[in-house]
């Protein structure tokens, strides 16, 4: 599918869900009301991510009354990122809306996101307005994002809408749905945000809660920063470290020679330190060179793949 005319729907609502049985009926009813109220021509792709309850059964129950509904099932819990990616793969439209199944965001927000995308933006994320039970974790995460990437939005984890070509060009690893906004912006897509009302959760338990998520989130952020900054230029990172260590080894060696010749003092630990600096420095520099070769081969492979897809 190469152009918008080949799509039968204006947009696709992708709903990743895990153990949300009690919310499904209300969610589906709200979606139908919103579609009818605003005259929306969209499809709904519901992805049950290996739930332990009857989430899948409740979703399938609504297929008869919702002709636009697709239900996809993971036989085990793979994670929200995998559920989103799988949902997008099963969708049939150029615009994607990510809507959580916990009812904290209203389906009536959908037209506002579509309108913003139609203004020319590639990705629109919501800025949560209202009480949020994971407010501290979210604040720390968003603060780190601002410092590391200087991105022009303030809330990275909320309801989102984006053009499907974003996921065609960006590979999301496990749990990297949280970095979709960051990755999109850093890869040259235009992003913006709009206020969205956050409703209190009525049923079920929040997922991915706890302060331990701060450590995981920060480490993942550093991983994303490294990927963006150095994945195409690994020698810039490893080579710099390697040359610095080699330089320290050289200076330490001069100090050891001076002490031996002019002070007549031999200090064996300095010799060990010189060897350590030199060996690690050389390994880092060589690692950077190997990384450059791998990066060049990856670029060539991507170029060949894109050319083959165009020819097809």
The biggest sheet amounts to: 7 strands, mixed
Structural class: alpha/beta
Which strand-content bin applies to the residues?
5-15%
Please list the strands of the largest sheet in the order they lie side by side. 3-2-1-4-6-5-7
Helix content: 40-55%
| Low-confidence runs | 1-5
Second rung of CATH, namely the architecture of the largest domain: Alpha-Beta Complex
Task: Outline the structure in words.
The structure is a single chain. This protein has 312 residues and is of the alpha/beta class. It folds into two domains: 7-230, Spore Coat Polysaccharide Biosynthesis Protein SpsA, Chain A (Alpha-Beta Complex); 234-311. It is 52% helix and 14% strand. It is built from ten helices and seven strands. It has helices at 21-38, 55-61, 80-89, 110-118, 135-149, 165-169, 180-186, 212-230, 234-261, 268-311; strands at 11-17, 42-49, 69-74, 95-98, 123-129, 160-163, 191-197. A seven-stranded mixed beta sheet has the order 3-2-1-4-6-5-7, with helices on both faces. Helix 1 (21-38) links the parallel strand 1 (11-17) and strand 2 (42-49). Helix 1 packs parallel to helix 2, helix 5 runs parallel beside helix 8 and helix 9 (234-261) runs antiparallel to helix 10. The longest helix has 44 residues, at 268-311. The radius of gyration is 25 Å and the shape is elongated. The model is unreliable at 1-5 (pLDDT under 50).
């Amino acid at each position: 599918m190469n152009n918008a005319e080949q799509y039968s729907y204006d947009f696709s609502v992708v709903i990743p869900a895990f153990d949300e049985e009690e919310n499904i009926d209300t969610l589906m009813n709200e979606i139908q009301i919103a579609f009818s109220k605003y005259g929306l021509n969209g499809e709904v792709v519901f992805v049950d991510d290996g739930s332990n309850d009857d989430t899948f059964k409740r979703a399938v129950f609504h297929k008869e009354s919702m002709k636009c509904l697709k239900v996809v099932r993971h036989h085990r819990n793979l994670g929200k990122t995998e559920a989103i990616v799988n949902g997008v793969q099963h969708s049939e439209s150029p615009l994607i809306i990510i809507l959580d199944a916990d009812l904290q965001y209203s389906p009536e927000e959908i037209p506002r996101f579509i309108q913003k995308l139609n203004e020319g933006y590639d990705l629109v994320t919501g800025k949560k307005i209202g009480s949020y039970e994971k407010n501290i974790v979210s604040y720390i995460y968003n603060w780190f994002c601002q410092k590391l990437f200087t991105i022009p939005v303030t809330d990275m984890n909320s309801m989102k809408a984006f053009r499907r070509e974003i996921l065609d060009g960006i590979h999301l690893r496990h749990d990297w749905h949280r970095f979709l906004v960051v990755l999109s912006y850093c890869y040259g897509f235009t992003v913006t945000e709009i206020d969205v009302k956050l409703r209190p959760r009525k049923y079920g338990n929040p997922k991915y809660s706890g302060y331990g998520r701060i450590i995981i989130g920060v480490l993942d952020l550093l991983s994303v920063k490294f990927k963006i900054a150095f994945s195409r230029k690994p020698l810039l990172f490893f080579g710099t470290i390697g040359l610095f260590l080699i330089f320290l080894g050289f200076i330490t060696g001069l100090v050891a020679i001076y002490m031996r010749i002019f002070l007549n003092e031999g200090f064996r630990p300095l010799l060990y330190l010189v060897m350590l600096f030199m060996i690690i420095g050389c390994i880092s520099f060589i690692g950077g060179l190997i990384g450059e070769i791998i990066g060049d081969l990856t670029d060539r492979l991507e170029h060949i793949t894109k050319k083959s897809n165009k020819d097809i």
